[in-house]
Amino acid sequence: QLQLVESGGGLVQPGGSLRLSCLASGSRSDYYTIGWFRQAPGKEREKVACLASLDNSIHYGDSVKGRFAISRDNAKNIVYLQMNDLRPEDTGVYYCNAGDLWWGKGTLVTVSS
Description:
Elements: E1 3-7, E2 10-12, E3 18-25, E4 34-39, E5 46-51, E6 58-60, E7 68-73, E8 78-83, E9 92-98, E10 102-103, E11 107-111
């Protein structure tokens, strides 16, 4: 079983940056495809980025392409989400998911002036 803990959220002004971390324990995170999702108030959860386990291919949601970057540090068993040029519409709770099976509890990102 895999446990996931997200961190790095907070309050940031529009145009700012944050780096989220997803720390995995219980197993190696590189065994799984890792996805970052977010859920804004009153909206459905959406996938923003994923990093495949087999070939390390990366996919981004259209709304974050060119601004967000997902990466993995296998030695630390952490998957990162670097978020640049943040916008108010990026506000939400960000979750990481492994293998479509395990979820973290999320970290809140608020983009506001």
